[in-house]
Amino acid sequence: MPTENFQRLQQIVLADQSIVNELSGIDSVEQFVNKLLDIASQRNIAVKDDDVRQAIADARRSDRKPSGINCEVSDRREWLPARVAKTDGKVVVEWFHIGNARLTDPFFEDSIKKRRRVPFSLVFRPTTDIEMLKELPVGIPPTGFIFHMSRCGSTLVSQMLAALDANIMVAEAPPIDEVLSISRNIKGDSDSAGVDLLRSVINAFGTRRFPQEKHLFIKLDSWAILDFDVIQKAFPDTPWIFLYRDPVEVVVSHMRQPGMQMIPGVVHAFDDLVDKDGPNVSREEYCARVLERVCSDAVAQASCNGLFVDYGELPSAFHEIVRHFRVDFTPDQMATMMHTTQFDAKTPQMFFKPDSEEKQRQATHKVRESCNRLAPLYERLKSLSRDARSMTALRLDMQFDEARLKDDLALFGPDAWTRHFNTDYYEGEWSGIALRTSENAHVPLYPDPSADKFVDTEELKQCPYILSVLGSFECRVEFARFLRLTAGSEIREHKDHMLGIDDGCVRLHIPIVTDPAVEFYLDGQRIDMKPGELWYLNLNLPHRVKNNSTVDRVHLVLDCVVNDWFTELYKRSITNQTANSIRAGSGIAT
Question: Which DSSP string corresponds to 237-261?
């Protein structure tokens, strides 16, 4: 326990930024002790050499307990919350002096351990009441949350983000877990209290300590998904991802070196997973139960602005993660982040070595048997991971009035239709009416990829409902046209160029007149599109159409620029309408 005089000295030091700067730059314990004694002597405070050395020894022993120095600091930007704990019935925050160090280590605790080598950061750990957090200036709001199954690539993603000085990357910080734990215990009294606590502590991490910082990413502990309701209420508009991996490989990893959540009784959120009649559950079985709980809770939140990412899709899926987080990094910034993937995420001084095959070989019968219970969940997670790289076709969550579409179409007689310019692509008659096209277009039906100015045609101005359809898209619609394939006609198999969601431009189809006898094949799969539906089609893939019916098939076709709105529509549609989506390579149409 520090002497009264030593505590007084601490308060004086913390209030004077010039002294903080001087002491925090000393790495040597001897130099630190001597300097602190000089400061005490100059202020007539009776502090002995033994007092300072004892304080250092106590700080090393009580690293995980609040120090008890209750006082403010001169420059809050140099301090981060290190602990949140209940002491004498009050919730207090312990602050840690991080100085000008960035959080670039694989875990928040790694950065803290490094700074603990500095005597000042070890000894001077002031505490404040939790309510003080509410008085902090508004920081950078969270840009994205990273949830994960554990041992599945979340550290890789966080290390990629930490590579840029524009990003604050907070990885599994104990104060966030401690606030969530406190929130669980106060839910019955006041649900909003836990939400406010979480907002306050994350705001503290969002303090802009350097002028170049723009984004705040939070990687949570794997069990934080169990508190998703509190996190979602605190930050309902913040996008999040959930990373997962083959459960067999995850369990093998925990058999080698168990995470704290895999030790019964350590993470209390899993206390009910131990057999009530005693600890009869095997290590493998307990690990599988924990993973089942985590993954089940993640799947339950599938419709809440989340993106599910399979470990096997990394690092290429990082581009999709960045889009999901609605961040526009420059090519140079992306290259900097991708460069980190050649190193091991948890031990960055070593090169990365793939270990999936090795883990599969090391999986015992007991491990595989325990993971059987996770097989349906793993398949469900994989189905939720569908993205542009594997999505062939998807019915989007927008529906239009078939009758009103046909009313607008009926305004045009036979002379309004122009033969399609790609005459080598079809047999019979394929024609169209341009509704929106490039300015000064010589061939109005041609969607010129070099165009940057677009105009509505006189034909579109005659179509009140089509105008409202186009107005419902919160992304730029560059080209719009009716395309008609007459009865008995055929479009030969071909590929279009740069028309997938990853290319930044998509070609959407809204059938107006069609028939079950119309055969539309995309990448060898038959797609059944009904009037009024809106469809995304990856037209970079081979596709063909044959109208075997007795009616002319007409679609409204739109070329749209991918933006945040369209990306969210796309992801929401994957989650809500998996029955209407086609998985690349599945060989089935639904």
Answer: T--EEEEE--HHHHHHHHHHS--GG
DSSP secondary structure of 49-85: HHHHHHHHHHHHHTTTS---EE---S-GGGEEEEEEE
pLDDT tens-digit readout, 155-172: 999 999 999 999 999 999
Distance (Å, rounded) from C-alpha 33 to C-alpha 216?
37
The half-sphere exposure of 258 on its side-chain side, counting CA atoms within 13 A, is: 15
List of residues 6+ apart from 9 with CB closer than 8 A = 36, 39, 40, 43, 45, 47
169/235 Cα distance (integer angstroms): 17
Residue with tokens 């939070």: 218
> What token pair was written down for 193?
């209290």
pLDDT band at 585 (very low <50, low <70, confident <90, very high): very low
| 372 and 436 together in one domain | no
Q: Considering 135, 153, 182, which residue would you say is the last residue of a domain?
A: 135
Q: How many domains does the chain have?
A: 3
CB 438 within 8 A of CB 453: yes
Residue-wise pLDDT for 414-433, tens only, equals: 999 999 998 888 999 999 99
**pLDDT > 50? residue 182:** yes
Judged against a pLDDT cut of 50, whether residue 579 lies above it is answered with no
Residue 387: is its pLDDT beyond 50? no
Cα torsion 413, 416, 419, 422: sign: negative
Neighbour tally for 569: CB within 10 Å: 19
Q: Which residue has the tokens 């961040």?
A: 327
**Cβ atoms 140, 186 nearer than 8 A:** no
Query: What is the rounded distance in angstroms from the CA atom of residue 427 to the CA atom of residue 345?
Result: 56
Coil, helix or strand at residue 536 = strand
C-alpha distances (whole Å) from 81 to each of 170, 212, 302 are 11, 21, 31
Number of H helices, E strands in the chain: 21, 23
126 and 187 assigned to the same domain: no
589 assigned to some structural domain: no
> What tokens appear for 549 in the block?
């019916």
Backbone φ and ψ of 333, nearest 5°: -65, -40
- Rounded Cα–Cα distance for residues 322 and 143 (Å): 10
Residue 478 counted as domain residue: yes
H/E segment holding residue 405: helix 402-409
Would 588 be classed as within a structural domain? no
Helix (H, G, I), strand (E, B) or coil at 110: helix
Show which of 105, 135, 165 is a domain's final residue. 135
The radius of gyration computed from the CA coordinates of the chain, to the nearest angstrom, equals: 30
Give SS3 for 116: coil
- Do 501 and 562 form a contact (C-beta atoms < 8 A)? yes
* Mean pLDDT within 484-491: 97
What's the domain range around 61?
1-135
